[in-house]
Amino acid sequence: MSTPTREIEAAVGRRYSEAASTRVEALCCPTDYDQRYLEILPEEIVARDYGCGDPSRHLRPGETVLDLGSGAGKICYIASQIVGPDGTVLGVDMNDEMLELAESHRRSIGDRLGYHNVRFLKGKIQDLALSYAKLEEWLALRPVQTVADLEALEAWKRDQRQNHPMIGNATVDVIVSNCVLNLVDPQAKAQLFREMYRVLRDGGRAVISDIVCDEDVPPHLQADPELWSGCISGAYREDRFLAAFEQAGLHGMRLLARESRPWRVVEGIEFRSVTVEAFKGKEGPCLERCQAVIYTGPWRSVTDDDGHTLERGQRMAVSDKTLSIYTREPYAGSIVPVLPYDEVPLESAAPFDESRDRLRSPRETKGEGYDGNREPDDPCCGGGDCA
Q1: How many domains is the chain built from?
Q2: Of the residues 279, 298, 314, the one at which a domain ends
Q3: Res. 4: pLDDT tops 60
Q4: DSSP type of residue 359
Q5: Residues 4, 45: contact at Cβ < 8 Å?
Q6: Range of the domain at 300
Q7: How confident is the model at residue 381 (pLDDT cuts 50, 70, 90)?
Q8: Is the pLDDT of residue 265 over 60?
Q9: Residues 58-83: tens digit of each pLDDT
């Protein structure tokens, strides 16, 4: 039998409250960070790092970044320097001691950088719509003592989530997290991934470092609260971790990092660090605009997250939406787009037949009546003297 949610949250809270004031070695894997970004950070922020990877190295200037389970703020302050003054960094955590530690250095670090682009928010990472800081303020003014009080509280929470969410819909470019998703109760993990999907913008991505296992964690290990807080009991099986992103509606999942050596081995089960990237943005109608793509290899064929199979070197017919997806990350480096000579306007495009994969005849892109002739643009070996 799995451990009840309250017991899991209490164990995690106790351990990370302790870890805010005293370094706990068992909570972290050795991780190499870019030293340029650590120089500005106070030692207590650097020392209270309990991650298992470095998702910040995959960020870019100007992005809006959300760190799930931001702890003492190390990843947030690294991200702050990478995204720069045109970017924004939001850290969400539920542990008061960690939030207090992170917040205590926010002003001084921003002053040293010359800009302030970091904010820390109190909330559960599986419920990014509800601010627990606002919830505590509400409860302080309106203690729940009767059924009517409880009903008023639930109504207020619904209004907050719907009309005043802590993190709004489609407002984040990149979600990062460092060894935190495994701490969430199993019953809330599907909601966690749905929340990640909700707050990401179209074309946004999640870059998540976490602990995974190679076999299922047996019930007696799941029932140990200390192993939960130690990033063991709640670890995803590696293949199911990737599947969770797909089930939430994300696509293009890839392993950016996977430690060959396990971090820990418990009863023969290997627990190791991975960093996974996944993208949002495959929604929308599939329209026929006479477009094709050529997969450049190296595999003979590949199948995408929607079941489309691409044959190496072949002109595969695709919808306008699929072409748009393939010409951006993470696919663009392996795809050559083939566009029609005469563009099909969106307003006159018919639905694309998604029932089967098929080749696209060159005559579909050139036009059935095409009979043009063309001389080389730069005749004779690119304009030089021919041997």
Answers
A1: 2
A2: 279
A3: no
A4: B
A5: no
A6: 287-366
A7: low
A8: yes
A9: 999 999 999 999 999 999 999 999 99
Local confidence band at 10 (pLDDT 50, 70, 90 cut-offs):
low
Is the separation of the CB atoms in 335 and 302 below 8 Å?
no
Structure tokens at 349: 């495009």
Give the CATH number, domain containing residue 49: 3.40.50.150
Residue tagged 């795809």 (tokens): 335
- Based on the number of CB atoms within 10 Å of its own CB, is 135 exposed (0-12), middle (13-18) or buried (19 or more)? middle
175, 146 contact by CB (below 8 A): no
Q: Above 50 in pLDDT, residue 387?
A: no
CATH number at residue 299: 3.40.5
237 and 331 in a single domain? The answer is no
Q: E strands within the chain?
A: 64-68, 88-93, 118-122, 172-178, 200-213, 236-237, 251-258, 264-266, 269-279, 287-288, 291-295, 301-303, 309-311, 315-318, 335-338, 350-351
Instruction: Looking at the structure, tell me whether residues 253 and 299 fall in a common domain.
Output: no
Examine the domain organization and report whether 333 and 209 are in the same domain.
Answer: no
Q: Report the distance separating Cα 303 and Cα 146, nearest Å.
A: 56
Q: Provide the residue type at 194 as one letter.
A: R
What gap in Å lies between CA 139 and CA 378, rounded to an integer? 76
Measured CA to CA, the distance from residue 26 to residue 12 in angstroms comes to 13
Our separate counts of H helices and E strands in the chain read 14, 16
